[in-house]
Specification:
There is one protein chain. By secondary structure, this protein is α+β, with helices and mostly antiparallel strands. Among the domains are: 101-292 and 327-356, Rossmann fold (3-Layer(aba) Sandwich), CATH 3.40.50; 369-458, no CATH class. 23% of the residues lie in helices and 28% in strands. The chain has helices at residues 3-16, 111-114, 124-129, 162-165, 170-183, 205-208, 212-218, 233-238, 265-280, 304-318, 341-356; strands at 20-21, 31-33, 37-44, 50-55, 61-65, 70-76, 81-89, 93-109, 133-140, 157-160, 187-193, 249-253, 286-289, 322-325, 368-375, 378-384, 390-392, 400-403, 409-411, 413-417, 420-424, 433-436, 446-448, 457-458. Strands 2, 4, 5, 7, 8, 9, 10, 11, 12, 13 and 14 form an 11-stranded mixed sheet that branches. The longest helix has 16 residues, at 265-280. Mean pLDDT is 95; it is low at 3-15. This is Sialate O-acetylesterase. Residues 103-349 form the Sialate O-acetylesterase domain.
Length: 467
């Protein structure tokens, strides 16, 4: 056998054995982001193979050449619709069927985002039985910590059915269901969460290492056998594999575990949002739940969770294209996993409907502190998102505290006057500051006219000393 024949035989064998594959986030039943460019990517054993990708919505071919076995294309997507196929051609052919075009959201955080109907949910049986939506799709990312970024994650897209929904994130489901019912487009939900995790594990380690203060703060998180505590370890295994997949935005429910280093959350949480946006190369909307009241320590009015809430409020007010769903009226002081996940998902969806999708006449936020005005021995509080007035649920306003120059806070009385609140106490003749619901287990009762609760806040910037 001469050299030419040997070469041809070897080449034929090599091509015959060539294999093409993609990450699991690309599969049957997936939802691709509408009116965008969906990245379709993968690998091949033939290092410089020519790859062609076709979406059957228009049958236009997009072609690329693999580089060292890695390939990707940008596949333009149409308006919402389907089902379609995505066809990938090389020396073998892949076909992904039942593909929808719609709106894709990532849901991430710790246990309150992870919590499924099987773990505890109001009216769970009825909600599960009614969860038949073929145009809502789920992708569950398994919990996996790794020391280096991973290019793929186990998982598959599935239709929303009672069987799949009962083990999926309740908050993500109710968020997606609200979007689906209001927008009438397919919804793709990617759930990537892990109970007990602090924010630092969701940020790449090399990003945190650039800030010595944050790295030191991350060391205050104790190590547990049930969840990771080291910077970047959840990001590496559970977020990095998704960063090429085009999304509409993210929802987030996390913060309880950062009571251990609460003051650093003013920096770490905005950093998470900035980092994810950079990794996706997209300034996508990021909506999050403010953590609910819980009796962490029955003996005193602890402020660690209050500081986390304040950092969340700070983030909403200082990071563009973010929104916060307040949960201080739907918590449970005896259960850190309150079961009214329907309302959490709905409140997050209100932000998306109003700010991302431009749905008019949607009230999406409760009252947010704007400014204070001194009036003798009283302080007048002004709010955003209260243009139609304020209301309370109950006979008297709760959880207002007022202080003078000595920085000692006394419980205060409050009166609603239109869209302002007047706060005063006989113990403080010359007030300087007000705090509202500013301790871990505070359960306030101030709302706007549309029934959304006011966020906890403080008007001062005094140093808070923690144990």
């Amino acid at each position: 056998m001469n050299k030419l024949v040997v070469f041809v035989v070897a080449l034929t064998v090599n091509l015959g054995m060539a294999k093409i594959w993609t990450p699991t986030i690309l599969s049957d039943n997936m939802v691709l982001q509408q009116n965008s460019e969906a990245t379709i990517w993968g690998w091949t054993t033939h290092t410089s193979e020519t790859i062609t990708v076709i979406g059957t919505w228009n049958n236009t071919e997009v072609t690329t050449k693999a580089h060292q076995g890695v390939w990707f294309v940008k596949l333009p997507t149409p308006v919402a619709g389907g089902p379609y196929q995505v066809i990938i051609k090389g020396h073998e052919e892949l076909r992904y069927s039942n593909v929808l075009i719609g709106e894709v959201w990532i849901a991430s955080g710790q246990s309150n985002m992870q919590w499924s109907p099987n773990m505890g949910l109001d009216n769970a049986e009825e909600e599960v039985n009614n969860a038949n939506y073929s145009d809502i799709r789920f992708f569950q990312v398994p919990q996996r910590k790794t020391s280096t970024p991973q290019e793929d994650t186990p998982g598959s897209w599935v239709n929303c059915t009672p069987t799949s929904m009962q083990d999926f994130s309740s908050v993500a489901y109710f968020f997606g269901r609200k979007l689906y019912k209001n927008l009438s487009v397919p919804i793709g939900l990617i759930s990537s969460n892990w109970g007990g995790t602090p924010v630092e594990v969701w940020i790449p380690k090399e990003i945190l290492e650039k800030d010595e203060t944050l790295m030191q703060a991350s060391q205050q998180i104790e190590e547990f056998e049930w969840w990771p505590n080291l910077p970047g370890t959840a990001y590496n295994g559970m977020i990095h594999p998704l960063t090429k997949f085009n999304i509409a935005g993210a929802i987030w429910y996390q913060g309880e575990s950062n009571r251990a280093n609460a003051k650093s959350y003013y920096k770490s949480f905005p950093l998470l949002i900035e980092t994810w946006r950079n990794l996706w190369e997209k300034d996508f909307p990021f909506y999050f739940a403010q953590i609910a009241p819980f009796d962490y320590d029955a003996e005193k009015k602890d402020l660690k969770a209050a500081i986390v809430r304040d950092a969340q409020l700070f983030t909403m007010q200082n990071v563009a294209n973010t929104g916060m769903a307040v949960t201080n009226d739907i918590g449970n002081l005896k259960d850190i996993h309150p079961t009214n996940k329907q309302e959490v998902g709905r409140r997050l969806a209100l932000w998306a409907l109003a700010k991302t999708y431009g749905v008019e006449a949607v009230t999406y936020s409760g009252p947010v502190y704007k400014e204070m005005v001194l009036k003798g021995s009283r302080i007048i509080l002004h709010f955003d998102h209260a243009q139609n007035g304020l209301q309370m649920k109950g006979k008297t306003l709760k959880e207002f505290y007022i202080a003078g120059e000595d920085q000692v806070f006394y419980e205060a009385k409050g009166k609603i006057k239109g869209n302002t609140v007047e706060v005063y106490s006989s113990n403080v003749k010359e007030p300087k500051a007000v705090r509202f619901a500013f301790y871990d287990k505070a359960e306030p009762n101030l709302y706007n006219a549309e029934g959304l609760p006011a966020s906890a806040f403080r008007t001062d910037d005094w140093e808070i000393k923690l144990d």
